[in-house]
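Researcher: Let's continue the batch. This sequence belongs to Reverse transcriptase domain-containing protein, and it's 250 residues. Same format as the previous ones, please.
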Amino acid sequence: MVTLGPSDMLVSYDVKDLFTSIPMDVTLNALEKRLDKDSTLSQQTSLRAFHVKKLVSFCMKEANYVQFGEQCFTQNSGAPMGSSLSPVQTEVFMEHLEQIAFSTSNGSIVPVLFERYVDDVFAITKSGEDGAFLNHLNSRFPTCISFTIEKEEDGRLPFLDALVIREGDRLKMTVYRKLTHSDSGMVERARAICDEEFLAKELGHIKTTFFSNGYPAALISSAITHATAQRRNMCHVWLFHYSYCPITMV
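Model: Same format as before. Here are the structure tokens for Reverse transcriptase domain-containing protein:
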């Protein structure tokens, strides 16, 4: 449970174009160092950290090309989109960046809370220090990595699929729906994200949406009742499955 102070501010940081921007040589070196420190590596492979690095380097650099028409082009920076190695490499780099950022920062600008999901960061900073920490992040790899910032407005901050709401010294959450949202929200998402006081309203929205798209009211109510009767436990996910029901126009 996070307890907010009067000078705390909710912010989110986001990396622009993360996959195609990471410095690959830095990332490969960070990968090798991590593997060198991994005491279980010898139990997983006969390869040494150096050999793994060389293989990953080949996949990320030498073998990173695309054919367009009659010409072949190589990608000279960042990680290739679509490669199964790219998410792993970007995570290695982001963890490396975090270690550098926190170990070299002035203690007064370090966020009270710093939680990251891939390239999206939710943070609680001291008022007035949010910009200083942004500048510090952007100064680590200034030629390729750029963070942007979004600050809370009226005690509210959207982060991923959630709207984080500040009430006194506590944080509450409900589903965040963008203006361009297609109204395809699901029961499980609402149940996992919403605080109790917002859950009924969100489930009502879901019920109205499915009903307006031709689903039988009894089926909708049954599915929602079944989902909400289960314990709200993030470790055991229940999926609300539904079938496409075309509406015949007379």
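Researcher: Any comment?
Model: The chain is about 40% helix and 20% strand.
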